[in-house]
Write a structure and sequence with these properties.
single chain; about 350 residues; two-stranded antiparallel sheet; 14 helices
Length: about 350
């Protein structure tokens, strides 16, 4: 009896301050359609799970990492060899980052082909694109932090490519480098961007994105829009299924990194020659390979400038698509599907091509 009274008092106190009753009512009403494409609804949650791993493991790594070119590589060696389970935490962070980006790619393209960008979900789509850009930023800035040979020269090449962006590229690259060359200033900037600026952007975009998902729910693809489909409760049914997927993937990742820990190359020497075959991480490799095959000049323009301008136009097209293809014009729907298919095909082809070279 006393326990029940205490429980009621605690619940009443929390309800007055956080409107628990209202949230329970909303959670009870929210449903998720069940159909043959429902599996793709889990991709966003999978990306969130890998993000949580990034936050937790990243916080642990910061306890030992030293963002100085004279000590960064040595601090990673210490984490790998002297800190209890340090190698495991670092491997979970690095492999988890790659899997998070992969999950976001799958989430992006399944959302695109299921037409979940259409009204009233334009803001959901745009914040999702913003989150992908932020995660790319995490990948690029985090890659340099171990200050090993491959990361140093890959970052140097990446900033040189970024400098080719028309009008603003050179200025942005110089600011990121902190000068003309990759140095301590670069490492300091990348560290601050990685652990402070990008997390702020991530929290803001994630908050809006999740709010929009809760407001508008899961969209139905055209193929089942006119069919009677079963609805399941978001809470607890869908949430419990989501957590089961999280648990399975977490255990698979933990088992994988136990057998294949993330490596560490020799310490970077800015005065040494770049090793042969320097490549960016796989999520930038398709763009890198595409720029490599362009001729030096396309008409009066430099090939790299044309390539970077093309990437910008593709990004702009993804931004505009929810306002252009609104589900009312079958011709626009066809062109949108063709555009997405071509971009996905080229991304896969150039990424695999770059891996094989």
């Amino acid at each position: 009896m006393m326990a029940q009274m205490l429980k009621n008092k605690v619940y009443g106190w929390l309800d007055q301050r956080f409107a628990l009753g209202t949230m329970q009512e909303l959670a009870g009403k929210k449903t998720v359609p069940v159909h043959r494409h429902s599996i793709w609804y889990y991709m966003g949650g999978i990306a969130v799970m890998f993000l949580i791993i990034q936050v937790l493991t990243g916080g642990l790594l910061m306890l030992y990492y030293v963002p100085e070119i004279s000590a960064a590589h040595a601090s990673i060696v210490t984490i790998n060899s002297q800190v209890d389970f340090g190698w495991f935490v670092r491997s979970m962070h690095s492999w988890g980052a790659n899997l998070m980006i992969l999950a976001l790619f799958v989430h992006l393209f399944t959302t695109y082909f299921l037409k979940a960008y259409r009204p009233p979900r334009e803001i959901t789509w745009l914040t999702g694109l913003g989150l992908l850009v932020v995660v790319f930023g995490f990948g690029f800035t985090g890659y340099l932090l171990p200050w090993d040979e491959v990361a140093f020269f890959a970052t140097k090449v990446g900033l040189d490519i970024a400098s080719q962006v028309p009008f603003v590229g050179e200025t942005i690259a110089t600011i990121l480098r902190g000068g003309a060359d990759v140095s301590q200033a670069t490492l300091s900037r990348f560290f601050v961007i990685h652990v402070f600026l990008l997390p702020l952007a991530l929290v803001a975009l994630m908050g809006v994105h999740m709010l929009m998902v809760q407001l508008h729910g899961m969209s139905r693809p055209d193929s089942v829009k006119d069919q009677a489909v079963r609805e399941e409760k978001f809470f607890p049914t869908f949430v419990l299924k989501d957590l089961m997927v999280w648990l399975l993937l977490f255990n698979l990742l933990a088992a994988f990194v136990s057998f294949y820990p993330w490596g560490l190359g020799p310490e970077a020497d800015p005065f040494a020659a770049a090793p042969a075959g320097i490549k960016p991480e796989w999520y930038f490799l398709g763009m890198f390979q595409f720029l490599k095959v362009l001729p030096a000049y396309i008409g009066p323009f430099e090939g790299e400038h044309v390539g970077m301008a093309l990437f910008a136009l593709i990004g702009l097209a993804f931004v505009v698509i929810p306002f252009w293809e609104r589900g009312q014009n079958p011709v626009r729907k066809m062109w949108a599907e063709l555009f997405g298919s071509v971009i996905l095909f080229l991304f896969i082809v150039f990424t695999v091509w770059g891996m094989l070279l």
